[in-house]
Structures are given as structure tokens and as C-alpha cells.
Design goal:
This protein has about 140 residues and is an alpha+beta fold. The protein has one domain (about 1-140): Lipocalin, CATH 2.40.128. Helices cover about 15% and strands about 40% of the residues. It has 3 helices and 9 strands, in the order H-H-E-E-H-E-E-E-E-E-E-E. It has helices at about 1-15, 30, 55-60; strands at about 35-45, 50-55, 70, 75-80, 90-100, 100-105, 110-115, 120-125, 135-140. The protein has an 8-stranded antiparallel β-barrel. It starts with a helix and ends with a strand. Mean pLDDT is about 85; it is low at about 1-15 and about 20.
């Protein structure tokens, strides 16, 4: 059974890889699609507040810090509990779509702060309190 799950997970992740021939960094599905690792969560309580590294707040366990997110060109994503697996595993799927300078993940609207074809930085505003912001960095 474990071998079947591993094969299915691998097939899903491989099917989500982006077309390597397309190197444009535009904010569209084919350009953004690919497999990423979340590397940092940066928090600001207000626009004038200093930045704080909240990575260990959002990813408190070592088993969460090596996971991957595959954004597929069909608008689905696969969150894979990779490497050191949490108990219970945190594998999940959902939907995503780019709309202008935003990215919608399971209905949550985020602002694309930057995208250079390797790193994607998304901003969530009003996360804990009005006026705050959490910047999440995804790296291929």
C-alpha cells in the first residue's frame, strides 16, 4: 500500500512540472507552475514596523520545513509532506490561479510581491490584525 501511495504521489508531482521550454517570468499559469519549497515567512505588524522572521511560527516542526508545493498548470496544487514526514502526514491538494498581480490559493487572495522564475513571494495582508502583512517566499 505504501508503495502505491509513493507512486501516486510521484506521478502527481511529476505531472505538475512546468514546461521547461518556457522561460518567461510573466504572472500566468505556465510561467508560475512548478515545484517549490517554502523558505521564509516574514511578518510586519504595520507598513512602518520592522520585519520579523516568523518562519518557525508558521513551520514550528522540522517535518514541515522540507515540504514541497507543486503548482500544476491545470490549476491544482499538491502539498507534499516530503523528507521528514509529520505524523500524521500533511499531504493535501487544492486549487490555485493567477489573476493580474494576485494569486488565489483555495479562495484566499494573495498579492504577488515578486516573481523571477525561481522565487515567488506572496503577501497576505490583514492576517492577524488590520494592516499587518505576511510575506511567504517560495523557491524552486
Amino acid at each position: 500500500m505504501k508503495i502505491l501511495v509513493l507512486k501516486l504521489s510521484s506521478a502527481l508531482i511529476l505531472s505538475c512540472k512546468k514546461n521547461k521550454d518556457k522561460q518567461s517570468c510573466s504572472l500566468d499559469m505556465p510561467s508560475i507552475a512548478g515545484t517549490y519549497k517554502i523558505t521564509t515567512y516574514i511578518y510586519k505588524a504595520s507598513p512602518t514596523s520592522p520585519e520579523q522572521d516568523f518562519t518557525t511560527v508558521f513551520l514550528p516542526n522540522a517535518c514541515q520545513r522540507d515540504d514541497s508545493v507543486a503548482l500544476c498548470v491545470d490549476g491544482k496544487y499538491v502539498y507534499h509532506d516530503a523528507g521528514l514526514v509529520c505524523s500524521p502526514p500533511r499531504d493535501t491538494t487544492g486549487t490555485w490561479s493567477p489573476v493580474g498581480a494576485t494569486l488565489i490559493l483555495d479562495g484566499t487572495v494573495t498579492t504577488v510581491k515578486s516573481f523571477d522564475c525561481k522565487a515567488l513571494i506572496l503577501a497576505l495582508t490583514n492576517f492577524f490584525t488590520a494592516g499587518d502583512e505576511v510575506d511567504i517566499t517560495f523557491v524552486r
